Amino acid sequence: MNLEKRCFKKICFLLAVLLISLLAGCGTQKPVETGSDAESTSNTSPAESQIESETEPTNESGGAIVVYFSRTGHTKPLAEYIKEELDADIYEIEAKVPYTDDDIKYYTDCRADREQNDPTARPEIAGELPDLSEYDTVFLGYPIWHGQAPKIIYTFLESVDVSGKTVIPFCTSASSPIGSSAENLHPLAPNAVWKDGTRFAIGTSREEIKDWFSSMNNQKELKLYIGGTELPVTWLENASVEALKELAADGLTVQMSMYGGFEQVGSLGKSLPKDDKQITTDYGDIVLFSGNQIVLFYGSNSWSYTRLGQINLSKAEMTELLSNGNVTVILKCK
């Protein structure tokens, strides 16, 4: 009888532990902050504006994640549309010290005014940051504050590693264009492959997001390979790059030669449109010289060139890649 009692107590204990574990597993989602971007203020009550959102992505085999900051809700629905259309994971950036309505009243010396005017401002992020190691693509969403991304986006990019990943910025605003907001984020993650940023109006529909995806899918990408390895390149949008895409439509092999201890140069076999300007290059720069030669830099030089793009590798990586003899570059547009 004592043995039966002991068994019964042990079974009850195990069931209690199991129940506690199940309860502890609940509530892993946190409420998403909603409202408006700095251009307008929401009248929605906190109770009405809070909904559940995934914040700990669990993608097992690569793919996409949507990362966004939405002070009061205009960026948030776009992020959710992208998540649903791509079946992607999602992570909301939230400030450790939340922004109040007064914090985003422009030109009142409010918190947003001070942060956006301070190059060193890096607002703290609440909670744990996502592990991006298993993702190939990061959609990065934010509102436009004083013509730029909020400084908390700078905090995020300086706190995670997006090296070798494709970053696609998107923003929302009442009227401001995306301007230089996305471009100014590039130095914070120089080893990422940055795609052109896109601005959406407040209230953008799911159908408009679908149209955006369609336009992206129809765009052919120019890829650069050395030694069979695709390099992470951010290409500029200009007539020279468009002509280079056409030239590389069926694949283009360029035999490069070392020159000057700072570059590799090779003939394209055809002249492209050019817009030469006197510039000082740096490692990773891709330029057009004399309209018919492509140049890859692992050092610096001052000359008249047309910029084509940037290889997103470190100086040490560029030096190792290009300074040990002539290389063969393969360009493909697909």
Topology overview:
Elements: H1 2-25, E1 30-32, H2 46-49, E2 51-53, E3 64-68, H3 76-86, E4 89-92, H4 111-116, E5 137-143, H5 151-159, E6 166-173, E7 193-194, E8 198-201, H6 206-217, E9 222-226, E10 229-230, E11 233-235, H7 239-247, E12 252-255, E13 257-259, E14 263-267, E15 277-280, E16 285-289, E17 293-297, E18 302-311, H8 315-322, E19 328-333
Describe the structure.
This protein has two domains: 188 residues, 3-Layer(aba) Sandwich (Rossmann fold); 112 residues, Cyclophilin, CATH 2.40.100. Strand 9 and strand 10 form a beta hairpin. It is an alpha/beta fold. It is globular and about 60 Å long. The protein starts with a helix and ends with a strand. The strands form four sheets. Strands 11, 13, 14, 15, 16, 17 and 18 form a seven-stranded antiparallel β-sheet that branches. Strands 3, 4, 5, 6, 7 and 8 form a six-stranded parallel β-sheet that branches. A four-stranded antiparallel β-sheet has the order 10-9-19-12, covered by helices on one side. The protein contains eight helices and 19 strands. 25% of the residues lie in helices and 26% in strands.
